[in-house]
């Protein structure tokens, strides 16, 4: 009998639950709102109800291998406690594992969402042919995952690979983590919007950016990317900043880890063509290793589904 697993991607806005077979085929899914404002117990209830709905639909046709759940934030794996998560306010020091165990009778596995996405790319995505992988997910923030010898590198307590919070510019822009100069503060989607607002406040924004701000439309990284594609100088400058920050960080990761493949995923990677040039220029400038032995730096092939596939693989692998 073909095995299947349930993969869950729990985000601050969206909660996605999917049924995935052992060959990497996604054959059923549910898309829900997280509704964090209703409280963490309510979110766990709706998540586990969604899991049980898919299990009950398919358990007679396929063999359930288990359930994998990707959760944003710093997760202490040894006891299943979510230490902190900017996307899940009110979940600090919440024992997620204990709450899920009350509601499910099937085996389940917890993982940081970026680690799960890295595992998904390693299984059937851009990193499927390599043993070692560094994954960066670019969204509102920046998460990271490391795969060594085909396995997630968790560090001592399960909190490794907070790659979005490496310091690039000491004393630089304030990051949501409280530090200044983090990669996230220069390359995340939120950083793109912050940079645009800074230009507007300082009176050095281009005419196109000024018109966008005056139109009443919400400033988003996607809208600013559209301006960059149209040749707007301010928008292009912002994405050059993104590329430089990414290139600087990736060069450091190459120098430290000596991995063969680096994959960028998440919604903000859709602006790849706007930051690609400055990113590769920065990598070449700052990594002696790269200049002598170039490594693959690739876009995710799984896109927003990387986390779901990786979560499912936690049970199938």
Task: Tell me what the structure shows.
The chain has 317 residues and is of the alpha/beta class. The protein folds into two domains: 3-125 and 305-316, 2-Layer Sandwich (Nucleotidyltransferase, domain 5); 133-299, Nucleotidyltransferase, domain 5 (2-Layer Sandwich). Helices cover 40% and strands 22% of the residues. It has eleven helices and 13 strands. The protein has a five-stranded mixed sheet with strand order 3-2-1-4-8. Strands 11-10-9-12-13 form a five-stranded mixed sheet, covered by helices on one side. Strands 5-6-7 form a three-stranded antiparallel sheet. Strand 9 and strand 10 (142-148) form a beta hairpin. The radius of gyration is 20 Å and the shape is globular. The mean pLDDT is 93.
């Amino acid at each position: 009998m073909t095995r299947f697993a349930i993969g869950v991607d729990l985000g601050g806005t969206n909660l996605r639950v999917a049924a995935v077979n052992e060959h990497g085929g996604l054959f059923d899914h549910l898309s829900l709102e997280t509704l964090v404002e209703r409280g963490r117990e309510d979110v766990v209830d709706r998540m586990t109800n969604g899991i049980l709905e898919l299990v009950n639909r398919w358990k007679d046709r396929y063999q359930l291998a288990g359930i994998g759940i990707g959760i944003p934030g710093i997760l202490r794996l040894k006891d299943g406690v979510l230490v902190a998560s900017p996307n899940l306010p009110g979940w600090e020091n919440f024992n997620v594992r204990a709450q899920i165990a009350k509601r499910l009778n099937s085996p389940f596995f917890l993982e940081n969402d970026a680690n799960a996405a890295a595992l998904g790319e390693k299984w059937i995505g851009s990193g499927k042919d390599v043993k070692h992988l560094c994954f960066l997910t670019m969204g509102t923030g920046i998460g990271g995952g490391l795969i060594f010898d085909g396995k997630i590198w968790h560090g001592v307590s399960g909190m490794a690979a907070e790659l979005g919070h490496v310091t690039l510019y000491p004393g630089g822009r304030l990051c949501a983590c409280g530090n200044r100069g983090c990669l996230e503060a220069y390359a995340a989607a939120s950083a793109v919007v912050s940079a645009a607002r800074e230009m507007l406040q300082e009176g050095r924004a281009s005419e196109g950016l000024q018109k966008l701000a005056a139109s009443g439309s919400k400033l988003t990284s996607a809208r600013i990317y559209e301006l960059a594609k149209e040749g707007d100088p301010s928008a292009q400058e912002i994405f050059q900043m993104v590329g430089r920050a990414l290139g600087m960080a990736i060069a450091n990761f190459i120098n430290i880890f000596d991995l063969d493949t680096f994959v960028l995923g998440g919604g903000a990677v859709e602006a790849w063509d706007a930051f690609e040039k400055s990113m590769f220029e920065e990598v070449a400038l700052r990594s002696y290793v790269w200049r002598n032995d170039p490594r693959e730096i690739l876009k995710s092939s799984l896109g927003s589904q990387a986390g779901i596939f990786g979560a499912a693989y936690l049970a199938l692998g």
